[in-house]
Design goal:
single chain; mainly alpha; 91 residues; 3 helices
Length: 91
Protein backbone atom coordinates (compact mmCIF):
# COMPACT_ATOMS: atom_id res chain seq x y z
CA UNK A 1 0.00 0.00 0.00
CA UNK A 2 2.86 2.37 0.78
CA UNK A 3 4.23 1.89 -2.71
CA UNK A 4 0.88 2.81 -4.30
CA UNK A 5 0.60 5.93 -2.17
CA UNK A 6 4.08 7.11 -3.07
CA UNK A 7 3.41 6.38 -6.76
CA UNK A 8 0.24 8.47 -6.74
CA UNK A 9 1.98 11.28 -4.86
CA UNK A 10 4.53 11.45 -7.66
CA UNK A 11 3.58 14.36 -9.95
CA UNK A 12 4.16 12.40 -13.16
CA UNK A 13 1.71 9.68 -12.17
CA UNK A 14 -0.86 12.30 -11.19
CA UNK A 15 -0.47 13.93 -14.57
CA UNK A 16 -0.83 10.58 -16.32
CA UNK A 17 -3.96 9.84 -14.31
CA UNK A 18 -5.36 13.29 -15.06
CA UNK A 19 -4.63 12.87 -18.79
CA UNK A 20 -6.32 9.47 -18.81
CA UNK A 21 -9.37 10.85 -17.03
CA UNK A 22 -9.49 13.75 -19.46
CA UNK A 23 -9.35 11.42 -22.47
CA UNK A 24 -12.08 9.20 -21.00
CA UNK A 25 -14.27 12.25 -20.34
CA UNK A 26 -13.74 13.51 -23.89
CA UNK A 27 -14.58 10.09 -25.35
CA UNK A 28 -17.74 9.92 -23.23
CA UNK A 29 -18.70 13.44 -24.33
CA UNK A 30 -18.32 12.53 -28.01
CA UNK A 31 -20.27 9.29 -27.51
CA UNK A 32 -23.14 11.12 -25.83
CA UNK A 33 -23.13 13.89 -28.44
CA UNK A 34 -23.36 11.33 -31.26
CA UNK A 35 -26.24 9.50 -29.61
CA UNK A 36 -28.09 12.71 -28.79
CA UNK A 37 -27.80 13.74 -32.44
CA UNK A 38 -29.14 10.34 -33.53
CA UNK A 39 -32.06 10.66 -31.09
CA UNK A 40 -32.81 14.17 -32.35
CA UNK A 41 -32.83 12.94 -35.95
CA UNK A 42 -35.17 10.08 -35.06
CA UNK A 43 -37.45 12.49 -33.20
CA UNK A 44 -37.55 14.89 -36.13
CA UNK A 45 -38.41 12.05 -38.50
CA UNK A 46 -41.20 10.85 -36.20
CA UNK A 47 -42.54 14.39 -35.88
CA UNK A 48 -42.51 14.85 -39.65
CA UNK A 49 -44.30 11.52 -40.15
CA UNK A 50 -46.92 12.46 -37.57
CA UNK A 51 -47.40 15.87 -39.14
CA UNK A 52 -47.86 14.25 -42.57
CA UNK A 53 -50.43 11.82 -41.15
CA UNK A 54 -52.43 14.60 -39.49
CA UNK A 55 -52.31 16.70 -42.64
CA UNK A 56 -53.56 13.78 -44.74
CA UNK A 57 -56.36 13.02 -42.26
CA UNK A 58 -57.37 16.69 -42.21
CA UNK A 59 -57.47 16.77 -46.00
CA UNK A 60 -59.53 13.54 -46.17
CA UNK A 61 -61.99 14.79 -43.55
CA UNK A 62 -62.34 18.14 -45.31
CA UNK A 63 -63.01 16.44 -48.63
CA UNK A 64 -65.67 14.19 -47.05
CA UNK A 65 -67.43 17.20 -45.51
CA UNK A 66 -67.39 19.06 -48.84
CA UNK A 67 -68.85 16.05 -50.67
CA UNK A 68 -71.54 15.35 -48.05
CA UNK A 69 -72.28 18.45 -45.99
CA UNK A 70 -75.69 17.22 -44.79
CA UNK A 71 -74.24 13.97 -43.52
CA UNK A 72 -71.46 15.86 -41.77
CA UNK A 73 -73.93 18.19 -40.03
CA UNK A 74 -76.20 15.31 -38.98
CA UNK A 75 -73.19 13.39 -37.70
CA UNK A 76 -72.04 16.38 -35.66
CA UNK A 77 -75.52 16.84 -34.19
CA UNK A 78 -75.74 13.13 -33.37
CA UNK A 79 -72.35 13.20 -31.71
CA UNK A 80 -73.38 16.27 -29.73
CA UNK A 81 -76.56 14.56 -28.53
CA UNK A 82 -74.63 11.44 -27.50
CA UNK A 83 -72.04 13.49 -25.62
CA UNK A 84 -74.78 15.53 -23.97
CA UNK A 85 -76.55 12.38 -22.78
CA UNK A 86 -73.34 10.79 -21.57
CA UNK A 87 -72.17 13.86 -19.67
CA UNK A 88 -75.43 15.03 -18.11
CA UNK A 89 -75.88 14.68 -14.41
CA UNK A 90 -78.72 12.48 -13.20
CA UNK A 91 -80.15 13.64 -9.85
Amino acid sequence: MAQTKSTIENGTDKDTLADSASRIAETAKEYVADHVADAQDAGKKALDAGRDSVTAAHQTFGDAVRRNPTTAILGAVGLGVLLGLALRKNP
